[in-house]
Amino acid sequence: MFGSDLPAASGLQSVLDPYSGQEVYVIPRLRPDWAILHVPEADEEGNARIFGTVFWDRIMSRAAKAVILSAERIVSRAELARLPELTVVPSLFVRAVVHAPGGALPCSSTPDYDLDRSGVEAYLQTVGKPEALSGYLEAQDRALRGLSPGAAA
To answer: Phi, psi at residue 116, to the nearest 5°?
Structure first.
């Protein structure tokens, strides 16, 4: 970006990197009000265990002012203590815990289910179409609750 108009147009600032001594561009940190994270396991207090890649969930749980967890399973604190290194999100960041099996669909939740590519494609077809999105979400809700398409909720 050095030598271009992009930093000035974007409002970026430069500082000296304390490790290399080189000038680098920096951006303000993101500070969302909420992070909503889906995890395989959490206790009722909001301590969350994540299997697999934890990078973004760890960062978002620290960046946000508060966290809401949806969890495949609610487990005891004693269960989480058996493998404490997997408890990635501590309860001090969490404001609510929701038991939501299948809550990451159509995305994956390791080790419970993989990415549903056709589900992602179906979701993407609703972008910018509120009625289509509403229909998609209704169908997902019914499927997660085990209801047939025509059954009463």
So the answer is: -100, 95
